[in-house]
Structure formats: structure tokens, C-alpha cells
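hiii, so i know i said id send this last week but things got crazy w the move. better late than never?? heres the sequnce for the chain we talked about at the cafe, plus the structure i predicted for it. fair warning i was half asleep when i ran it
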Amino acid sequence: MAIWLLAGVSAAATLNPSKPVATRTGLVTGTLSGDRQVAVYRGIPFAAPPVGPLRWRPPQPARKWKGVLKADHFSQNCVQPLVHNLLPWTPEFMLRNGVSEDCLYLNIWASSRPHAQPLPVYVYIYGGAFTGGAGDVSIYNGEHLARRGIIVITFNYRVGVLGFLADQELTRESPHHSSGNYGLLDQLAALRWVQQNIAAFGGDPKRVTVGGQSAGAISVSLLVASPLAKGLFRGAVAESGSGIAGIPLKTLAQGEKTGEQFVHSKGVHSLAELRKMSWQKLTAEPPKGMRFGPIVDGWFAPRTPVEAFEHGKQNDVPTITGWNRDDHFGKTANAGAFHKRVRNRYGSLAAEFLKLYPANSSKQASRDRNRVSMYLWAQARARTAKTPAYTYFFTRAIPWPQHPEFGAFHTGEVPYIFDNLYRLPRPWQPVDHKVARIFSSFLIDFVKTGDPNAAGLPHWPAYDPAAKATMEIGAQCKPIPLASPAREQFWVKYFHSPQSKNAPFL
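okay and structure toks below
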């Protein structure tokens, strides 16, 4: 078991949120949870507002304030479309507050009970396809995890065009000859804030774990691969995000080309004009098909995560990663459409695929593909990593009589791993509470020690090249095979073929 040394303190410490805590930028107070066991701080600035001349620049240090900041409410969220219900994601999965460019704030949940040693810290990065997401989402509430001995932090980072615009003029003004990835630089700024300030809240800056789901998981992979993130965390958790195929990343030149098209679509001729434009006008009616996200920018991301592991350039930390059974829940195609998609995606391997997965079995194909892809990712990682990786396959569907078709959908594991079932009005069963207890305990133990295993939990073996298996987390919690032998062999062949370039991320 990997054990990280604690930064010792001799006397028992308590955290009283009514008494000001000194951060590097000023004093803050918070609130107590209903049972008075958790101190909560909402809306602490970790960087300056990225507005005006700071739009499309790396985040700058937060401004110092006088007096005491009452951190008793969530901040506005970063600019994005306001969507509060998009099945299978009900309001509990969506942002709660409004939006603003002034959005770089974080939230802390920490035990208010006496503790003799600094507490380990879990910094969570939200998903949302890099076009949305927020730190105030109900199911990300860290209260239950904080009661069990870890500090939980959520925060906002810029998304969409405000977070990921690359442009030649932006590149020229950068001392690093880079542009784009501002949202990822926000994540770095939040992690640096934690290093500088979390001890004042009872946290241990030497035991920080970074985690995230979907786009948050991709962010975690990019942070693991980034030289700028060295020393900022000691563990990583990527929910629905790691596979041998990975997500394709544009180069800086490709990002700049998209940026040029965007600038022209707004009818302006300079960056200065674009910075003066209101965010409402800036984000209105984006050109069809144009999306903004992470790129290989030569600074934050000098290479892809796959390349970082190939060359041993990653931040080598213990890692948990996994997929949900129904992460891909697209509509079942008719036979004609199914066969056309198979031919386009699998080429010379299409006939073999169809023998293994006849029409209307695309869900099973997706499940097998994700498990094998994750195994091959762990295999590739192990060539240069000295730390363990733990993989899982989450299979418990949220009880939802009105929509059983969604199954164990994308993001459906989050209420379980945060132990937040009570935040969703669902007909929970005893097995759901059992799964939440086990999954959240795995997370807590990993944040504390770098190993999810502890007494009273099912044993979760680390990646082993000889054991072609992953940990099922659901009604049963035990290692399961990746796929049947014939199907596993097919996916290994596929991922080592040129056709795998067509592999979807989900």
C-alpha cells in the first residue's frame, strides 16, 4: 500500500468558520453545515476576474481585499448556455446560479471537528464538454465526504470560446508563444491556490488529489501530462475519461485556424475589438459546428497525454480511472444505419465486428470497447509509470422508473462517489446506499493514502498485465473480465490498427 507522509502538527486543530481564516489575499469566514460538523466556504476568489484586458489571458493573482470576506454563497458561474434540465441530466446535475465573466472562485468543505493532523484534500473538476459546468452543482456538494476526514474543493474554470480560443494575435502577445487552454490554466491557478492556502483550513498541501468526470477527467489527464502541474497533486481520479484511443486534440495551428474563423464571424478585425465586445454578443450564435476545447499549445500541453506516457514525461501519481456501463447511450440505429456506421468505423475489420456484435448490439460493443481500451491505456501507462493504476466499470443504474432506458448513464456514478444520493429524489434501494458507501469509501481511502483499499471493503486490485480484468462497482463489487476472449482479442487488434483512429471517445 502506498502511504504518503503527513505534514505533522502537534496540537489538535479545529476549524470555526465564524472566525476569520487568513488567506494570502485576505480574511474569510464561512458557515457551518446543519449538524455543525462541516465548515463550508463558498465563493473564495482564487484569481483576478478575467475581464477586459484580462480576457483570453492566463489567470492573474486574486486581488487582496480589506476587512473580512463572507464566503457564504456560491459565485456566479463562468459564461455558458443556461441549461437546467437535459435528460438524463436533471437539475441536480446542472449549474444553479447565473453566469458572468467574473467567475474564478472556489468552494471548500472541511471538517470542523478537532483533528490532530492536517487533512488530505480532494480538488474536483467538473465535466460539461468544455462548454459548460459549474462548481455549485448540487451533486458535487462535499459535505458528506468532508465528514469522513477529507477536505473537498470545487471551483469554476472558463469554458467555451472564453476558455479555449486560440488565435495568432493571442499567440504573438504571449511570452510563451501559446494561446488557448485558458480554462486549463484556471485549473492550475486553483491548484496553486490550494498549495498556498489550504493549510489555513486544516488541509495538507502535500496530500492533494485532483479528480474529475468527463471533461473534468480529460482535464485530469492533461494535468498529469503537463509540466506546469508538477508538484501540485499526489493522486488523480478520472471518471469516464481514460482509454488508449483518448480524445483527439488539435494542434496550436489548427486551433488558431478555428480562432481566425471565429473572429471573422464576429465582424471584427482585431483582438482589441473582440475584447471590447460584450460576452453576450461574443457568445451569441456561434458558427455551426465550431467548438472550443483543449489543444496541444506548446506550453501547458507540449504533448498529448498518450505521448507524455510514451516518453515518461508525465507527473507520475497513483491513478483511479473508469467508465460507466452506459456512458454511450445513443439511440439504437436501424439495421441499415448500423451496418453503415460499422463499415465507416471498422473498415477491413467490419465483418469480424459484425460476427461478434450483430445489429442492435452496439451497447454491448461500446461496453467491451471501453473496458479493453482502458486496460490498454493502463498497459501503456505502466511502461513508464512507477505508481499503480486502479480501473473500474460502474454498473449501478440510478433507480428511475420514468426513464429506465438511460441505465448507468454518463455522470450517473457521481452521486454515489460523492455519497450524495439524498440530493436526488429517486426511489433509492438498500443496494444503492451500499454502493454509495463502498464507492465513496474507495475514493476517501485513495485520497488519504494513494490506495483505495481498506479494511471492510471489497479488495480492488491494481492494474496487473497478467489479469485482464477491471473492478466492477455496482450491485456486486469484484473484478470482472474485460470481455469474452474472442471479443477481447478483436478489440486489442482494433486498437493496434489504423482503424482505431475512428474510435469514438464515448
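btw The radius of gyration is 23 Å. thought thatd interest u
miss u guys!!
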